[in-house]
Write a structure and sequence with these properties.
binds zinc ion; two-stranded antiparallel ribbon; alpha+beta; about 25% strand; rod-shaped
Length: about 80
C-alpha cells in the first residue's frame, strides 16, 4: 500500500509505502525528517466527521430557534 502525502517542510508531494502505523520519513527534496503516522490521519478523519455532525446538530437547533423567533414576530405584528 502506497500513500501520497505532503512534506511538512517543503510541501512537495511524497509517495511512500505504508506497512506500519508509524514511519520515519526522510524527504528526498529538502532532506528533512518527519514522522508519518497513519493512525493520526485516521484519528483526524474521525474527529473531523464528529465535529461536522455536531455542527449539523447545532445548525439544526439554531434554525429552530430562529424559526421560533420569526413566528413570535409574526404574531405580535
Ligand atoms: Zn521536503
Amino acid at each position: 500500500m502506497k500513500i501520497v502525502s505532503k512534506c511538512p517542510f517543503c510541501e512537495k508531494k511524497l509517495r511512500f509505502p505504508v506497512n506500519k502505523g508509524k514511519l520515519l520519513i526522510k524527504c528526498p527534496h529538502c532532506k528533512n525528517q518527519f514522522v508519518f503516522d497513519l493512525n493520526i490521519k485516521k484519528m483526524l478523519k474521525t474527529l473531523i466527521s464528529r465535529i461536522k455532525s455536531q455542527f449539523n446538530i447545532y445548525k439544526h437547533k439554531t434554525g429552530l430557534f430562529i424559526k421560533k423567533l420569526w413566528d413570535k414576530n409574526k404574531k405580535s405584528t
